[in-house]
From TrEMBL, chain B:
Source organism: candidate division WOR-3 bacterium
GO cellular component: bacterial microcompartment
Protein name: Ethanolamine utilization protein EutN
Any single Pfam family the record assigns to this protein: EutN_CcmL
Database matches in InterPro entries: EutN_CcmL (IPR004992), EutN_CcmL_sf (IPR036677)
Record keywords, A-Z: Bacterial microcompartment
Length: 95, 89
């Protein structure tokens, strides 16, 4: 899993039926020091996250495991909203 | 998933047996702020997208997680036609 920050949302009227009812959020991945890293991606949301939330998300085929129908074509799914990140030296993030 | 724009279609008469009947589109990769990226995918279209549509693309082994593509040699599919992108400024 990786860390990311929610930076927006995306709306599709026409979508694959198994994705119906899920919110799609735009996530900017962050590195272990909470700085942006790489390109933003679109994630299926399972925890009702919102813009500005720091989240963790699961990628690749495992991304469909948290969803109701195992045959849902998601390659990135948000599985948690982060309240606090502690590292060996300091507290990195607090909501 | 990533954002892309449908820029063309692919026609193949001789193809893998399990891909018969599937519509293949050329999708150029876009960043969420609408800047084009020099990368593209040939995608199986599952939502009847058209030329010029902005679409949502699922890649990798997750592209096989549908009834239509289960256990088939597919690594990119179109799963939605995008109407709106809201980005925090």
């Amino acid at each position: 899993m990786r860390l990311g920050r929610v930076i927006g949302s995306l709306h599709c009227t026409k979508k694959y039926p198994a994705l119906e009812g899920y919110k799609l959020l735009i996530v900017q991945p962050v590195d272990s020091s909470n700085n942006p890293e790489g390109m933003p991606l679109i994630c299926v949301d399972t925890v009702d996250a919102g813009v500005e939330d720091v989240v963790y998300f699961v990628e690749a085929r495992d991304a469909s495991i948290p969803l109701k129908d195992p045959l849902t074509p998601s390659d990135a799914t948000i599985t948690g909203i982060i309240e606090r990140i502690d590292t060996i030296n300091r507290e990195l993030y607090r909501k | 998933m990533i954002v892309g724009k449908v820029v063309g279609s692919v026609w193949a008469t001789r193809k893998e047996e399990r891909l018969k009947g599937m519509k293949l589109l050329i999708v150029q990769h876009y960043n969420v702020d609408m800047t084009p990226i020099e990368d593209y995918h040939i995608c199986v279209d599952l939502v009847d997208a058209g030329l010029g549509d902005l679409v949502l693309v699922t890649r990798g082994s997750s592209a096989r997680q549908t009834i239509q593509t289960d256990k088939k040699p597919v690594d990119a599919i179109i799963v939605g036609v995008i109407d709106r992108i809201d980005l925090k400024k």
